[in-house]
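Supplementary Methods S3. Complex input for the flavin-adenine dinucleotide-bound model.
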Amino acid sequence: THKPKVVILGTGWASIAALNKLDRDKYESITVISPRNSFLFTPLLPCTAVGTLSHTSVAIPIRDITSYKRYLPPTIEYAYAYASEIDPLTKQIKCNHSGQFSNHSSEFTIGYDKLIMSVGCKTNTWNTPGVEEHCHYLKESGDAILMRQQIIENLELASLPNMTDADKNRLLSFYIVGGGPTGVELAAELSDLLHEDIANQQHSFFRGVKADMSNVSVTLVQSAPKLLPGFPHQIQDFCQSHLNKESKVDVMLNTRVTGVSDTTMELYDKHTKTTRNVPYGLVVWTAGVQPTDIAHSLLKEINSVTTLNDTTIQTDSHCRVLGAPDIFAVGDCADIVLLPEYMKYVTDLFQNKLTLQQAIDPPPPPLPPVLSRSSPTQRLVKRILADLEKLVVENNIQLDFETVEKIVEERCSRQKHLPPTAQVAQQQGHYVADLLNNSVIDMYHNDESTSFQYLNRGQLVYVGAHVASMALPGTNDIDVTWAGTATNFVWHAAYFGMLESTTGRYELAVDWIKSYVFGR
Ligand SMILES: Cc1cc2nc3c(=O)[nH]c(=O)nc-3n(C[C@H](O)[C@H](O)[C@H](O)COP(=O)(O)OP(=O)(O)OC[C@H]3O[C@@H](n4cnc5c(N)ncnc54)[C@H](O)[C@@H]3O)c2cc1C
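Predicted complex, serialized as structure tokens:
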């Protein structure tokens, strides 16, 4: 029988999960294409930016992964390149080399029977002037290395004898923009570095630096009213107060960055509706993501041959790209369209009410598994029901099917259904590999029992001063939360266990002990 050729785009969470699970005997070839020749353990990237960990501890070379079972056929091929165009009709991918240093340019085309697209996403600056030119990002190891170099440089410059107080204040004002988990963890790590290691020169890597700590500030700027959107409110509140009180991070909520120049940043306060300029020494932008160029290119291809007009890659509940069923899009680059599932649940509920001649009051039936396993989907159902109730109660509107469907459609189009996390990406990677391996599953079968179901295993966030917080999904949609130094131990243990590399774990353990004993 014909064995399919599988191509995987990317070496991130979803790609590596799929790669590790694909049964090599079942494919003619498996080819991985990515401009990054290592897997990056992103949750620990903030630690590398401040020197708690070295960047090699959090990266596993792709060659180690592809040659892991080298005695098994077929060999997994890796190409150090990026995909620039995908043609879903001819099933061809155009690739370009990704060498930074050589002038050599090469382009090649590769065919596939099944494509796993897991190219992640890129930073979104929301067209804020000056961000691209003056801000650091935190997506890759290179970003963390650059950031660390600038932190060290600022500290060294601030300790020069001719520096005025104003110069020192500016150089040592560190801003993190974006109050999601990446921003929070980076602010916490940076503050630890400054207030533990730099302040305590006995244990500091920067022993010679005579920086005056009164000039040092770490500020976390968040445009929303709360940090950590999507987390349980107990964690949001704990995190905000812990960062402020214990970790010495200034948290600015309801504040938007509207422009960045080479030395100052413009902040807009949503409450007072005022704008002010603040001097800065370093700004790290972690406020949002957007589709990559290859995702845009694929969408253009799909939209040109179908009636779809999508702006992000949408898949069905089996992770197959709408309009290109031989492409599986997983991880941050795609979103599952669950509109039919929401529509069925809500219209059934509505039908029930009509039949029973009742208002919205009776408790809704349990959610189908595909909607109940992730907090965004649960929240969305709640919002849809709340919208409908508002129409009935406040506006006294008699609901009909058309109105119900319109509200479901509107709400669904405004929200990503799965959180953009490593957990989701990894589970989707495993799921797609299983789907491809398991020839008994009819790929075009839309049975819910074979659809992707996200299992929320909880969320961990490091909040500084040796404290972490954790939320685990509990019963009745109520999360169980913990925070403290014991949770910090869980945080370390969880990531140590998740890093699937013996060398990586060894380096991780050594780095943690080294930082703890000798400082960063
Ligand atoms: C600093 C940081 C901290 C984070 N912390 C957490 C956390 O604590 N918990 C959590 O759950 N999530 C966390 N995340 C989010 C998590 O990393 C992402 O959700 C996850 O990486 C998504 O996996 P992915 O496989 O979709 O994409 P990625 O892991 O981003 O991988 C994308 C891959 O595609 C490659 N690629 C890009 N363009 C192309 C192309 N044109 N052709 C071929 N290959 C291409 C890239 O080089 C990369 O190898 C964090 C993210 C960051 C940046």
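The chain has three domains: 5-122+290-336+421-450, 131-287, 339-413. The radius of gyration is 25 Å.
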